[in-house]
Automatic annotation (TrEMBL):
Organism the protein comes from: Loa loa
GO molecular function, one term: hexose transmembrane transporter activity
Chain ranges of the Major facilitator superfamily (MFS) profile domain: 11-470
Gene3D superfamilies per the UniProt record, alphabetical: MFS general substrate transporter like domains (1.20.1250.20)
Principal localisation: membrane
Spans traversing the lipid bilayer: 59-83, 90-108, 120-142, 154-174, 180-200, 280-304, 324-345, 352-374, 380-401
UniProt-recorded name of the protein: Major facilitator superfamily (MFS) profile domain-containing protein
PROSITE patterns hit by this protein: MFS (PS50850)
Membrane topology according to the record: Multi-pass membrane protein
């Protein structure tokens, strides 16, 4: 059975509102970073009559970059607080309503000259909106898709993220001038408006309709739309599956009287309290999913993808024009590569793709570090190593890590698991952003060691989703 138009529309719109915006947000300062620094300096001269101190500019630039993970954490906390209160659909709509004025503010930055703080404020609220979108995206799509379709509808997250990165690089090359760089914000603004229209037309998650609204009729309508089912008996069977998963805890408490069952926080972080077999299985699945995300962070791919122009130009010693076009070419190649997991993931399996891509990325990262240590004479090694890291993670761990944790836990715990995983990633990204910009006096190899962080071995793999095991 193919994807229903509703599920297809929801998954694509959610990915564009989440992954596309995240990739665009992370990379938007990559190409025009010299022009934006010049704008900040000109604003300082207009206000104070003298240029900004280079060290002060480095520190300010680090804060502007670090604003993204900070605002992302704020958005993720907001999503965690409101997702169960107002629903998945309205949470996604809220993210769009925050992003639209933020993007307009960023786009009008030059009109606010000499107040460059407009860019900082707009970037903060845009990051907040994206933090909300990233959390609710996986929760809404996984809760709405059937078990057999979850891997497929989530596997194109990396593709859409690559599209966002590609458009950032493309428009960055074309608009990296002192007058045109604010127009780079028109693309995410358009995407946000379109996503908002799609979300308004979508149904609420069937899981949410049953767990929080206790509305079987609403859930049935959503299942009919998202699963593409026609027969009432098939819809009733799906409703029973949702109830068995989402309301298992409630039924257990009623059957066991006053016996307290462990909550999500206890299952995740207090194994001495949640020591029953079911909690142990859920905890294992949740932490394996989180560790896969952590392993992806330690490949360095996310930060390298966002600042590969900086790596080519400042660390690899390539010319600025080559660095810009090289970043664009790198992203163009990654786009078709990121399509491959969509068609092979169910045949090859998660574990082989994770292990192979992690192993190759470790070798490529080592090659890049050595090339940076050697210097300009090994700039082809820097170019090759960075490219391999980005290519191989798009084929494997970069794609799978986006949805793996959601496959290993019951639907009722997806929100908590995704929240914990993304919070950790945001804290790690904040550390990397701040460190990268605050080591201007270090040697180039030292900068890259901090910049790329360190690599870690791949965690073990659970053979089946916990929904099946439980």
């Amino acid at each position: 059975m193919g994807l229903s138009p509703y599920l297809l529309s929801l998954s694509i719109a959610a990915c564009f509102n989440g992954n596309f915006q995240q990739a665009y947000l992370l990379s938007i300062l990559n190409q025009p970073y010299l022009e934006i620094q010049q704008f900040i300096n000109e604003s300082t001269i207009a206000r104070s009559g003298k240029s900004i101190d280079p060290l002060a500019l480095d520190f300010l630039w680090s804060l502007i970059n670090a604003m993204n993970p900070i605002s992302g954490i704020v958005g993720q906390m907001i999503a965690y607080l409101i997702c169960d209160r107002i629903g998945r659909r309205w949470t996604a709509i809220t993210s769009c309503l925050i992003a639209i004025p933020a993007l307009l503010l960023s786009m009008l930055t030059r009109l606010s000259f000499p107040y460059y703080e407009t860019l900082v404020i707009g970037r903060f609220f845009w990051g907040t909106a994206n933090g909300i979108a990233i959390v609710v995206q996986t929760v809404w799509v996984v809760e709405s898709a059937s078990t057999t379709q979850r891997g497929f509808v989530n596997s194109w997250q990396e593709v859409i993220a690559t599209v966002g990165n590609l458009l950032t690089q493309l428009f960055g090359v074309l608009l990296s001038t002192s007058d045109l760089w604010p127009f780079m914000f028109t693309v995410p603004l358009t995407v946000t408006v379109v996503s908002l229209v799609v979300f308004i037309r979508m149904h609420e998650s069937p899981q949410y309709a049953l767990m929080f609204r206790h509305n079987r009729q609403e859930a049935a309508v959503a299942i009919r739309a998202y699963h593409g089912l026609k027969k009432d008996i098939e819809i009733d069977e799906e409703i029973i599956k949702y109830e068995e998963d989402g309301q298992r805890k409630e039924k257990q408490e009623k059957g066991m009287g006053k016996t307290m069952q462990p909550n999500g926080l206890e299952i995740m972080f207090m194994p001495w309290k949640a020591n029953d077999p079911l909690s142990a299985i859920i905890r294992l699945g949740a932490w394996i999913g989180i560790m896969v995300k952590i392993a992806y962070v330690f490949t360095g791919a996310r930060v390298i993808r966002s600042f590969n122009t900086f790596i080519y130009y400042d660390l690899g010693r390539w010319q600025k024009t080559f660095s810009q076009w090289g970043s664009l070419a790198n992203t163009v190649i990654r786009l078709p590569l990121s399509l491959i997991p969509i068609f092979i993931i169910e045949r090859v399996g998660r574990r082989p793709m994770l292990i192979i891509s992690e192993f190759v990325s470790i070798l490529a990262l080592s090659m890049t570090i050595v090339s940076v240590v050697v210097g300009k004479a090994a700039k082809f090694g820097t170019l090759t190593g960075v490219s391999i890291i980005l290519f191989v993670t798009s084929l494997g761990i970069g794609s799978i890590s986006r949805f793996y944790s959601a496959e290993l836990v019951p639907k009722s715990m997806i929100l908590r698991t995704i929240f914990y995983a993304i919070i950790y990633l945001s804290l790690e990204n904040f550390s990397l952003e701040l460190k990268k910009e605050q080591v201007p006096d270090w040697t180039v190899p030292d900068q890259f060691f901090v910049f790329s962080n360190r690599v870690r071995p791949l965690p073990p793999h659970a053979p089946e989703p916990v929904d099946v095991v439980a």
